[in-house]
Amino acid sequence: MKVSIYTSFDDLPQGARDLCDEFAASRWFDSLAWFQCLYATALKDSAQPRLYVASSESGETLACLFCCTRGPRDRVLAGMSNYYTMEFGPIVKAGADLQATCNALATFIGAERPRWHTVRLAYLKESSTAAAALVSALSRTGFSVHRYHQYENWYLDCPGIRYEEYYAGRPSRLRNTIERKGRKLSRSNKVDFVLYRHATDDIERGVRDYVAVYNSSWKHPEPHPEFIPELARNLVAQDSLRLGVLYVDGKPAAAQFWITTRNEACIYKLAYDELYAAASVGALLSCEMFRQALDVDMTPRIDYGVGSEAYKREWMGSVQEIFGIQAYSRRSIHGIGNIIAAKLRAIVRRTVARPKN
Predict the structure, then answer these.
(1) 72: CATH
(2) What domain count does the chain have?
(3) Together in a domain, 164 and 260
(4) pLDDT per position in the chain (357 positions), as tens?
(5) 180-214 burial code (b ≥16 CB/10 A, e <16)
(6) Which terminus of the chain has fewer CB atoms gathered within 10 Å of its CB, N or C?
(7) What share of the chain is helix, strand, coil (3-state, %, to 5)?
(8) Are residues 293 and 167 in the same domain?
(9) Are residues 39 and 88 in the same domain?
């Protein structure tokens, strides 16, 4: 198995592009469009791409691992991810030997000179077999792997479930609040729901209204203003954008940005104007978005992204861990120093947590 490195998306061979494009309709965060959008709008000023492609002896592309560094002298290799990422891992062709492919990637990374003293990977899902295979491979190829908890990921497995059945299973307190607040708001205001999905739906207006809601919410403004508009344009091309806006008397009051693929609907971003907080506009909009996902898209899974917010438990059914790793090289002085420091920190944590008599 051969592994090659590329330092620009433009240089990627066609086989690597085709492999990533295969995932666009089913696993958006493995698509080439996702990584190009993330890098161009949020990472370009602070990182340099380092793109690994594994191929068979016959030249067939088997896997891609998109990483980055802060410069040629920086010996920390990081996964190409940040706070916009929902999940990360190697992109492996269906039918390829997963562990053998990840072993090839890890062995190549471990053999590079000058050595990487640290490999940092974040947003790894507990359920990802590809992520698990890469972590295992790193631990067998000269790295001491230290895992840490990042977030909870709440999700709902819902194949064949329609909205009315799903809604009937929500806690009574949530249903009563939605129905009471919905009636009250509709009596005194004109309430409209608009779903922006196709290029003909005036996507630019939908994005502007989403941004207006986001900036009027409790959340900080986006650190990279071009990210969301560019992401929306990419998603429209794949029929994966579900941007819902709830208007009250013509003004955008709540907005939700969902990414829908063949495998799941991901609740990616959501916000509401704090002026309408008492009207529970966020929950009212959620009902419309869940109806779209279950009755129209018929998604087999709804994913609530990252975070442990209590309200997610009312809408979802299961939870898993999203974790990160720091893999320190056992063959570099800096890496050995990091290993020692990590072990000392672990001893301190255990000592502090030990019950006192």
Answers:
(1) 3.40.630.30
(2) 2
(3) yes
(4) 999 999 999 999 999 999 999 999 999 999 999 999 999 999 999 999 999 999 999 999 999 999 999 977 789 999 999 999 999 999 999 999 999 999 999 999 999 999 999 999 999 999 999 999 999 999 999 999 999 999 999 999 999 999 999 999 999 999 999 999 999 999 999 999 999 999 999 999 999 999 999 999 989 889 999 999 999 999 999 999 999 999 999 999 999 999 999 999 999 999 999 999 999 999 999 999 999 999 999 999 999 999 999 999 999 999 999 999 999 999 888 888 888 888 888 887 777 777 765
(5) ebbeebeeebebebbbbbeeeeebeebbebbbbbb
(6) C
(7) 40, 25, 30
(8) yes
(9) yes
pTM over 0.85: yes
Residues 147 and 76 occupy one common structural domain: yes
Q: Is 305 a member of any domain?
A: no
Q: Which residues contact 106 (CB under 8 A, 6 or more apart)?
A: 134, 137, 138, 140, 141, 143
Determine, yes or no, domain membership for 198.
yes
